[in-house]
Fold these 3 entries.
Entry 1:
Amino acid sequence: MVVFPVRQRMGCEVMRVGLFVILLLMVTWVNADEDVYPEVKVADPYIELHTGPGAGYPIFNVVDRGDFVEVIKRKTDWFKVRTAKGKTGWVSRTQMEKTLTPSGEVTEVADAGFGDFSKRRWEMGLVGGTFNSAPVLTVYGAYAMSANLSAEISVSQVTGDFSSSDLVNFNLLSQPFSKWRYSPFFTLGVGQITTSPSVTLIQAQDSQDLIAHMGTGIKIYLTRRFIFRAEYKNYVGFTSDDDNKEFEEWKAGFAFFF
Amino acid sequence: MEGRLRILFLTIILQGMCMLLISGMAWSADAVVSRDDNAAQQQVIQPQIERRTIDIDTIDTEDFEVAIFAGLLSVEDFGTNMVVGARVAYHVTEDVFFEAAYAKTDTSETSYERLSGGAPLLTDSERELTYYNASIGYNLLLGEAFMGKGWAFNTALYVIGGVGITSFADDDRFTVNFGAGYRFLATDWLAIHLDVRDHIFDIDLLGNEKTAHNLELTGGFSVFF
């Protein structure tokens, strides 16, 4: 039984801790480049690697049939791949769709296409136009409860010459032919309009009214997740005066679905 | 003496075990790679291997862009001041992208207020201008920029236009904006922007209603994710 003096014991501790730390670092270093990227096999005679994610960028390398490439990331319609020799370049989606997975199946590039348009659940968009000849901008969100019926909520801002208004609307939207590329729709809803007269007018007060509207429009599927939407709405404002106000709104804009 | 020898032996054994562990891990990694190559070659001969499906959905898609920018906004009659804002963009294709922006600036006094010596037209809180807009951009000229001998960066010159609302002097004004910009991609996910825009809205604070053109020059950073 040997008793070590204090200095020697501390030396042992330091060495043991140091060894442990080095071991840990080496373990993590060995496992560092284990990021697994999916691999695909080239089935065409060759695929072309561009220097950047665009059709105009020059082709600096080709990968022959039968070789595997790792797919690292994607930007719009371009995939960044790395060859077995370590060269990194961008491949277009049309060429990626002709490659094969390691099990021999054709690579399916998951992308929202027209088919998903009719299966969509959520939609968000921005439309603008005129509201009784004053400019209006609307942001809306919609949820498709079924293939033909969806519920929407929208917030609009009207910037007129003498007043500006904020509208909040809830409406139901019915699309009888939701699977068509050019799909017409009808809307019916209620909301609230808050009108604030312009600052340069004296003695002006904000007013809030209940409004109801009905409208019609068309949704056109464009590309990927985007649709173009144009609509007309006719509003009736229930005011405390004897006459009800009537507003006409024409709008168009873009939306995306997911 | 005896104690030191024991320590020496213990450390040698420990080091040996560590080496075995490390080389064991490296060897197993190699084995996985070589097993895959063999499997690919044997596909024609033995169709009963386990299928390894790749999930293209797990590929990282970098279409969204978040940016902050700062620069100068010249508000007609109200001086040129620093503007700070943020934008979010979504790239649909290599050519088209959508963008939503929000920015704020503090305007200064008009020359009328300074010269006439009368009461100021606007209070300090009314002088603050904020705008938010949504625009569509088109990458007109994609290209590469070269720095020195060994560096090449992807760049894009784009034109952009959109609509929005400007909140100034307690009023909201419908605004149209259009302009052009230059995007310099330092890496795949980091870009530097230089943007020139004209914001057009109608204003009637100084008597008659007129169309104001407010030029903006900004630079910013954006991150793709």
Note: Chain A touches chain B through 61 residues (CB under 8 Å).
Entry 2:
Amino acid sequence: MTFDQILFYCLAAIAIISALMVITRRNPVHSAMFLITTLFSVAGIYLQLHAEFLAAVQVIVYVGGIMVLFLFVIMLVNLEVVSTERRFNKQWIIALIASAVLLVEFGYVIVRGGKSSLLPPVTGPAQDLTRKNSEQIGLMLYQNYMLPFEIASLLLLVAIIGAVILAKRRLASDK
Amino acid sequence: MSEFSSFLLGTTIKCIVVIAVLIGAVAYTTWLERKVVAHLQIRWGPSRVGWHGLLQPIADVLKLLLKEDMTPGQASKFLYVLAPLIAFVPAALSITVIPFGNVAHFGSQTVRFQITDLNVGILFIFAVTSVGVYGVALGGWASNNKYSLMGGLRSSAQMISYELSLGLSVVSVLLVTGTLSLGQIVDLQGGRWFGIIPKWNIFVFPLFISFFTYFVSAIAETNRLPFDLPEAENELVAGFHTEYSSMKFGMFFLTEYINMITVSAIATTLFFGGWHGPTFGPLWLRGILPLFWFVSKIVAFLLFYIWTRGTLPRFRYDQLMAFGWKFLVPLSLANVVLTSLVVAWRA
Amino acid sequence: MPKNYIPILMFMALGCLFPLVTLALLRLIRPSDPHKAKLSPYECGVDPVYQPRERYTVRYYIVAILFVVFDVETVFLFPWAIRYDVLGLFGLMEMLVFLGILVVGFIWLWKQGALEWV
């Protein structure tokens, strides 16, 4: 086994184990910490694929932004009450169906896709492509995928509006 | 010795030297701060231990190390111990991608004064900075003390708010330089215009605005006065580290000063030409001088930090959030547009 | 793993090792005398009356979610900025539309008072 392979299996193991810890911990703050660990190891796997930009963005947006939001939300709820409540509510049937569908979908893709779902090894001039990873992403995103990029701004706008409207109701009830 | 093992050995030496120098620098930054603030306020400052109090930091470190290390009974033990570590490691990590000096030759040895140059250097720094929030938030939460929790919450909200303008002000620099690698950004700032003005980014037209927004948000990001709300001692005792003592408190302390140093180093690298400066003399001196210029620029920034601390009063929390969101974010966003227009017009 | 990330791993390991080793070593020489009063939460000497982990104001939640939105926006700016020389005026127009939509949102939430910290 090469150094890269050992590293990959370590990262993958950490990702899976901490993902399991996320759903088994009783304390939501501990769950959040394990989720962060998972996100970090996935970022590490991106790095192994020479996707430096993606790895950095994974940490900046997920660990630095979304998980801080999670932590704040956890601090907004009353932990003493939550830890005594039952952790499975009525949504579990829907959740089970949804994850079963997802599992079947993944299985189908892997079985039908076979070898074609494996990435070809990076050789020759393509290695230059990975070296200038962020530059390539810039060109692709702003030349070939212009429309999705502009739609992303609309999505962000919706997020702003949704957050403010939800919070306004809370603020009004606080007063 | 194979190439790879000599690379490993060289890097280990570099890392140990950098960590040791950082910790020494932190110790003497505290001395500098106490001395300068004292003189600003017409006092003597440390003057008993050693000549002009120069041994004071060492005495302080010994005192910190030998104090009783308590874990409060009501704390979440694991996170309580983990939090200082989460704060310290990312703070120190951003120094790894910053070039301290040019490639130097000592006899047959070639030394590169940078631990590693990444293609995504700046993004790496942002990634690492954004992790620093957790040290503060978790430290406050795990202590299970009202002051700590309030301090931690306030502090993390402040840090994420000012991270926005921090990121936006760097975008303008990238528009001019066109690369994320800090090594290349410094290389681009070599040389002079008309033989006099150094080609530093600060002298490229709209970038002084981004330097302003960068540095102000960086002061807030490092929780220093006038933005030291998290530990506003007249409201929150000591903020998120109220329950910390001994070495664990020392780690938070270390983190704050390392953050000051790295922020100054990044400002130097992005706007003030990094290690560039006049070089002369024999080959070994040419290797050392860039290091000297780099350190001098950092010390200048640190003095500015201390000067603001000695001069300005603290913000109120609502003023602080308003300043970040209503002034710095729009300003740095407008600056991005302005810079892109200027760059397009020049091309 | 690209080779220039190995030094970062090493620095991280050494950075973790340093405080852990100091903590462990100093445990041998420093005093340890915990008792009840010392271990109780610091509240200026008064016994705490209620738990600190209460619910906090929704303001923190607003700040965090707005941060996520604008953080994503900043991340979009980075690859655009470093390839601005190639993208040129077309890229500029594209980014102005993108920023324009978000600025409308920003002005709206400002008007709504979401940025007020009361």
Note: The interface with chain B takes residues 27, 29-30, 33, 36, 52-53, 56-57, 59-60, 63-65, 68, 71-72, 75, 131-134 of chain A (CB under 8 Å).
Entry 3:
Amino acid sequence: MNRSRRDFLERSGALVVSFGLPIEALAQAGQPATQDLDAWLAIATDGHVTAFCGKVELGTGIETALAQLVAEELEVAVGQVGLVMGDTERCPDQGPTVGSRTLQSAGPQIRQAAADARQTLLNTAAVRLGVPAASLAAKDGVVTGPGGLRVSYAELVGGGRLDAKLATRGRLKPSASMTVIGKPIPRVDLPGKVHGSHPYIQNLAVPRMRHGRVVRSPRAGATVAAVDAVSVAALPGNVRVVGLGNFVGVVADREEQAIAAAAALRVTWQGGAELPGAEALPAALKAAPATERVAQVNGDVEAALATAARTASAEYFVPFQMHASIGPACAVADVRPDAATLWSATQSSFLTRASVASLLGLAPDRVRLIWVEGSGCYGHNGADDVTADAALLSQAVGAPVRVQWTRADEHGREPKGPAMAIAVRGGLDARGRVVAWDSRVYSPTHSSRPDGAAPGNLLAGAELGLPRSVSNVGAGRNARPAYRFANDRVRLSLLEASVLRTSALRGLGSPQNTFAIESFMDELAAVVGVDPIAFRLRHLQERRAVAVLEEVAKLARWDPRPSPRGDRATGTGRGAAFVQYDNSGAYVGMAVEVRVDRASGKVRVERVYVAHDCGLIVNPDGVRNQIEGNVIQALSRALVEEVRFDRQAVTSLDWASYPILRFSDVPDEITISLIDRRDQPSLGAGEPATSPVFAAVANAVFDATGARLRSVPFTPERVKAALA
Amino acid sequence: MALTLIVNGKPYAVAAAPETPLLYVLRNELGLLGPKFGCGLAQCGACTVHVGDKAIRACAVPVGTIAAPVTTIEGLGTPERPHPLQAAFIAEQAAQCGYCTSGMVMTAAALLKEVARPTDAQLRAALDDNLCRCGAHLRILRAVRRAARSA
């Protein structure tokens, strides 16, 4: 155990409950101190419980859900549980907070730790009280037994730190006995958020802290020819200019002084690559050098297509889109000659620590990364890059430095969600069943997260000329249809490079792939004149998949009939879509009702219906909040979002040039049916409901108008062109 | 010469240059961290505070031009005595990341001062320039309606 963690525990006089992760999981997580048996929970002398979690809160309410797991198994009130998240010195490395996997993978670990702690306390109480542990019960932080025996957790721990490396496991509560899991416990973070006191990274200040800003190249690949420090010499704030390779920044006493200095600093740039321009997509995606992969093959798709009664083909396109967090990225760094402390809103505390350590020339164990909540991130945004910015500037000026990106920095520099093109061919037999499905997905990578061995994955690292290491991942997420076809083939063209730097945006390739699959299923249903939900059910066997589609049909009072509807005068239509997220996660059935204004081309989504099965629900209101958020954010992506760029750089640099959905455009209602599977493991709910939205809207527009939209976003211009 | 500002009922002497946006003075000099920096362009509403009864974008208004008392989310209500909107945002669980929340609450508070029972169209129009990326819109609308009913 490292020193600061031991100090913390000794100060709090805590009972430490340790439990061992499987060794392979620890090795995978890169945790060096596997023999130490990591501590997950501490119980202080006042009975307060602290859980240490390697995953972090991204605004989804996961902190509350994890506290519920601890409270349930440890038999304490939710209010007694606090979480320490993402601190590299105090928390176990549970991997980055990605893929809607916190409740799915970290949740069971934390829940088991809490159960172990309860059993340990019962065993300790049994020794203290001289009765068998089996005769004791724990509730509300107190152990009670026969004849009025009673001792609190705090009293049991009272004598100081007790290290209880467990030999036996606590038994998890069966679902019938759960009293906290499954309850809509109010979020622990909301009071602070509505009173302005929540401690965001953007609010953090440390003693002697100065303010920094980075000045970046106006063109991809341009290099610094000259930095004219004289241009800021007369400005107030003890301005320091930092130039390291192509990394250029300023540091000043006050924030507005740093902003002024960054604006005034004269930097001469030279060279740089020409971008193909946004109008070159999607053709450029299909022509780019790529590694070819076959994700799935069943039967002989070419032969089946050749003999099919009917065939169809279509191509779908989704442009580069961005996370567009409301708060631009921010970090604080205090870099000393032999050690550093980073305060960061990263999703990947341990990877980012390793990567920044490498950038600074320090060993990772000399760097502590303390995670602090940021603005919602929805994937890999600027949070890691700004951490590197602050660290380099702090190292250069020898003082703690805070950097907050500008709006143009965030819009322009955050890694983008990749543009994707998906081509599909399908064949139907005489009975109207799909007998051939052939798809090909063209995509840049969906992940370029920080890497300790490749600090060039960080913007500042690339500017210093350090190595970059990115492999193409995420394009295959939901590329394989959940439907069962006699012959199918799914191929991935994994692009070796990208016009714009890309990384994980909510759902990775899933929303794009689901757009293609669920639109094309709709197109095939229309070819044979069958109701779109009935057509899907013909090809779907799995019980839970069928259940969400049947449930959403009921919820939406779905009228079984083929699309498009006969009467197109009203401009109204309905569309459906389905996903099992990542082919192994939560199941979502969705239906939307739209109104299309034929004159303007504007699509308004009026009502959305969602049937959602994410296994055991820990906090139903938290799940509903996630579903609503996924739906609205994905509607925004479906209707208005496209990153623009010219031959030099991204030109979507503010909310006017990259609009998102506003209050006047959000649906009137989102109606949700949660299917709670108390006997099944929890599946993440942070992304799945994003995936079906693009197709559900396109299918509804088709139902309303007979026009098929195959390119996101569905702007009025595109809709008018499709209607013409 | 130092500027004087009245914020949340208290007078403050301000050291910043008069052209400094009000937001930096509130956050960095007065330690009022409720208003957030979102864009610096008066486009997103995360920095919304009241000057007098009016909701303004603190990121784009120079501190030297402020001629009326300023109210931030910290001055609107406290955990002990929350403003009806703050209570309603908690009751409706009307946030996710919460970065836009204080701007939402301040914009809605200015609206409710002007129109005690706004129609749905008035409500959506008033909040239209406050951006939320998490998609808490429907909850936020419910919260404002709840506060209007309770006021």
Note: The CA atoms of residues 28 and 50 of chain B lie 18 Å apart.
